[in-house]
Each structure stands twice: as structure tokens, then as C-alpha cells.
Design goal:
The protein has 98 residues and is mainly alpha-helical. It is built from 4 helices and no strands.
Length: 98
């Protein structure tokens, strides 16, 4: 996907700027894949919680926490955002458990 053509802007002329554009595109694609994967994990946690399957929900919570922290360490999402999501998911799990 060429962002410059998508937004109707001029392409870079300098070699290093062209390289930066391609690097940004790769990083953007990776971040989108990671965020999409995180959403899927959280949805599977929600589904397990809605079905009152606490064993599966506990596994999904552990996986979600691991993946959120990995995404935060790579800079895909902010570390405080990851911690907040983990906290909210854990709170919901504990509420369903009680």
C-alpha cells in the first residue's frame, strides 16, 4: 500500500526518504496485525466469560496479558494502556468468578 498515492501527496525524491516510507509501511502493517490479534484474543476472552467457562477464560486472560505486555514492550501500544486493559480484564474475570 502506497501512502503517498493514497493521500494524493507527492512521492519522496531522496533515497533515504523513500526508504523511510517503506520502513514506515512495514511497521504500520506489523502494528495493525498485532492490534488485530489482540482484539481477537480479547474477544475470545469475552466469549468464554459470557459462556461462564471460567477455565477457558482464565487461559485467555493469561494469553491476553502476555500478548498485551509484548505489544507494549515493542511500542505497538503504550505500556500504561496495556496495563489498564489487563487490569480491566482481570477485574471482569474476578467479578464473574465471585
Amino acid at each position: 500500500m502506497n501512502f503517498a498515492k493514497k493521500w494524493g501527496e507527492k512521492m519522496a525524491n531522496i533515497k533515504s526518504a523513500k526508504k523511510r516510507i517503506s520502513i514506515i509501511q512495514r511497521k504500520t502493517a506489523r502494528n495493525r496485525r498485532v492490534k488485530s490479534h489482540l482484539k481477537g484474543i480479547i474477544k475470545s476472552f469475552d466469549a468464554a466469560l459470557a459462556a461462564s467457562d471460567l477455565d477457558t477464560a482464565k487461559e485467555k486472560l493469561a494469553l491476553a496479558e502476555k500478548r498485551l505486555m509484548q505489544a507494549a514492550s515493542k511500542g505497538t501500544i503504550h505500556k500504561n494502556a496495556a496495563s489498564g486493559k489487563v487490569s480491566r480484564l482481570t477485574k471482569r474475570f474476578n467479578g464473574a468468578k465471585a
